[in-house]
Write a structure and sequence with these properties.
The protein is α/β, with parallel strands linked by helices. The protein has three domains: about 5-120, no CATH class; about 130-210 and about 355-400, no CATH class; about 220-355, 3-Layer(aba) Sandwich (Rossmann fold). The chain is built from 14 helices and seven strands. The strands form two sheets. The chain has a five-stranded parallel beta sheet, with helices on both faces. The chain is globular, with a radius of gyration of 25 Å. The relative contact order is 0.09. The mean pLDDT is about 90. InterPro entries: Cell_Envelope_Assoc, DUF218, Rossmann-like_a/b/a_fold. One of its GO terms (cellular component) is plasma membrane.
Length: about 400
C-alpha cells in the first residue's frame, strides 16, 4: 500500500504547525489554536483532493463548494445565527464525504477521522444526558459559591433541576400513564429537542465568533459597560473588557502608527455614583491611555443603546464609513454583534477572557436573550409541535 500521501500530509502538517506557533508567538493576540486549526484544515483539503484525483474522483468539489458558501455567509456578516446552522450542516456534509472517501480510496486518515467522530457520538449517546446533569449541578455549586445568588447566576442550577425531573418522569412515570396522555406529554421532549438544536447552533456560531482578528486600522474601539463595584469602581469583569481595548489600542499604534479613539460606553445605574463610561475612562487613563484618545458615552442602559448612542457620538465626529470594533467579555460579543448591526454599525467584537466556571451560566443567559430576540418564531414552532401531539393524542384516545 502506498503511504506517500499520508507521509506528505504529516510533513506539511507538522512543519506548518511549528511555523504557525513561531509566527503567532510574536503577536499580541497569539490565538495559536485557531491558526493551527486553519492550517490543519488546509492540509486536509489538499490531502483529500489529491488522493481522490489519483483515484479518478471529483466528489471533493461538493464539500469544498459548501465550505465556500459558509465562508461567504460568515464574512458577509459574522453576527447572525444562520452561520451556526451552515457550519453544523458543513460538519455533516464533511462526515458523509469521509464515508464516501473511505469507500473509494481506503484512506487511513479518513477512516481515523470517522472513528474519532463515531467514538464522540457514542460517548454522547451513552453518557451525555446523565453526565450533563451532573456537570450542571457541579457548575451551579461553584457559581453560587463564588458569585452572588441572583437569578441570573442560578441558570445552570435551574436547568439541572428541570432535566432531573424530566429524567425521573421518563424512567418512572411515563410508562404508567394512559397512551393518549403519554403521547400528549411526548410534545415536551420534542420541544426540548428543538430548543437544544437552537442552542447547539447558537453555541457553534458563538465559538466561531471568538476568532475575530480585526486589522490594526481602526478609528474607534467601543468598550461596552458593566456594573461598577460599590457604585464607583471598575469591576474585574469590566476591567478585562477595557484591558482588551487598551492592548489593541497600543498594538495598533505600534504596527500602524494610528491612534484609535476608545469610546467608553455605559450609563449610570440607580445604585451607581457616576456613569460607567466615566469610571471606565478614569481606569484607562491610569493605564496610560492619552485623554485625547478617550471618548465617553454615559446615557446607555442596554447593549443596544451602547451601540446606538456610541454611533451617534462617532457620527458627530466623523462621517461614515469609519472603522470600528467593540470589546466585551467573550460570551457576550456575539449578541453584541447582532445589536451593532441593529444600530447600523458594521462592527465586530473581540472578547475578554472569562473564568471557565462562569461560562456555562453566562452562555445560558446569552442563549435566553437570543431566543427572546426571535420569540415569535420559537413560539410558533412550539405551538405547531404541541398542536401535532394534541392531534395525535386525540386520535389515540378515540381509536382506543
Amino acid at each position: 500500500m502506498n503511504f506517500l500521501p499520508e507521509i506528505l500530509l504529516a510533513i506539511f502538517l507538522v512543519g506548518g504547525i511549528f511555523a504557525t506557533i513561531v509566527w503567532r508567538k510574536k503577536k499580541p493576540d497569539p490565538d495559536i489554536v485557531f491558526f493551527c486549526l486553519v492550517w490543519t484544515c488546509i492540509c486536509l483539503i489538499f490531502y483529500f483532493a489529491g488522493i481522490e484525483l489519483l483515484n479518478g474522483g471529483y466528489f471533493f468539489i461538493f464539500p469544498l463548494a459548501y465550505l465556500a458558501i459558509f465562508l461567504w455567509s460568515y464574512f458577509k456578516n459574522k453576527a447572525r445565527l444562520l452561520n451556526g446552522v451552515l457550519f453544523n450542516i458543513l460538519i455533516f456534509v464533511f462526515g458523509f464525504y469521509l464515508i464516501y472517501n473511505v469507500s473509494m480510496t481506503s484512506s487511513i486518515v479518513a477512516f481515523g477521522l470517522l472513528g474519532l467522530a463515531a467514538l464522540f457520538l457514542a460517548s454522547v449517546l451513552v453518557f451525555g444526558f446523565v453526565s450533563l446533569i451532573i456537570f450542571l449541578y457541579w457548575n451551579a455549586l461553584i457559581v453560587l459559591k463564588k458569585e452572588s445568588r441572583s437569578l441570573a447566576n442560578m441558570l445552570t442550577l435551574l436547568l439541572a433541576i428541570f432535566l432531573t425531573f424530566f429524567l425521573v418522569y421518563d424512567h418512572f412515570i411515563a410508562q404508567r400513564l394512559p397512551d393518549w396522555l403519554t403521547i400528549l406529554l411526548a410534545a415536551l421532549p420534542v420541544i426540548m429537542g428543538y430548543f437544544a438544536l437552537v442552542f447547539f447552533n447558537f453555541l457553534s456560531v458563538s465559538i466561531l465568533y471568538q476568532f475575530n482578528h480585526p486589522k490594526p486600522n481602526q478609528d474607534y474601539i467601543i468598550v461596552l459597560g458593566a456594573g461598577l463595584l460599590n457604585g464607583d469602581t471598575v469591576s474585574p469583569l469590566l476591567a478585562k473588557r477595557i484591558d482588551v481595548a487598551i492592548n489593541f489600542y497600543h498594538h495598533q499604534i505600534k504596527v500602524a502608527g494610528k491612534h484609535a479613539k476608545i469610546l467608553m460606553s455605559g450609563g449610570q445605574g440607580h445604585d451607581e455614583k457616576l456613569p460607567e463610561g466615566a469610571a471606565m475612562a478614569e481606569y484607562a487613563k491610569a493605564k496610560g491611555v492619552a485623554a485625547a484618545d478617550l471618548l465617553i458615552e454615559d446615557q446607555s442602559t442596554t447593549t443596544l443603546e451602547n451601540m446606538r448612542f456610541s454611533k451617534r457620538i462617532m457620527d458627530q465626529l466623523q462621517p461614515m464609513p469609519y472603522k470600528v470594533i467593540f470589546t466585551s467579555n467573550n460570551y457576550h460579543i456575539f449578541r453584541a454583534g447582532i445589536y451593532a448591526r441593529k444600530a447600523g454599525l458594521r462592527a465586530d467584537g473581540i472578547g475578554a477572557k472569562t473564568a471557565l466556571y462562569y461560562l456555562p451560566n453566562a452562555f445560558l443567559r446569552e442563549y435566553i436573550a437570543i431566543v427572546a430576540l426571535h420569540k415569535k418564531r420559537h413560539l410558533l414552532v412550539s405551538i405547531l409541535i404541541l398542536a401535532l401531539f394534541v392531534f395525535l393524542s386525540v386520535m389515540s384516545f378515540f381509536i382506543v
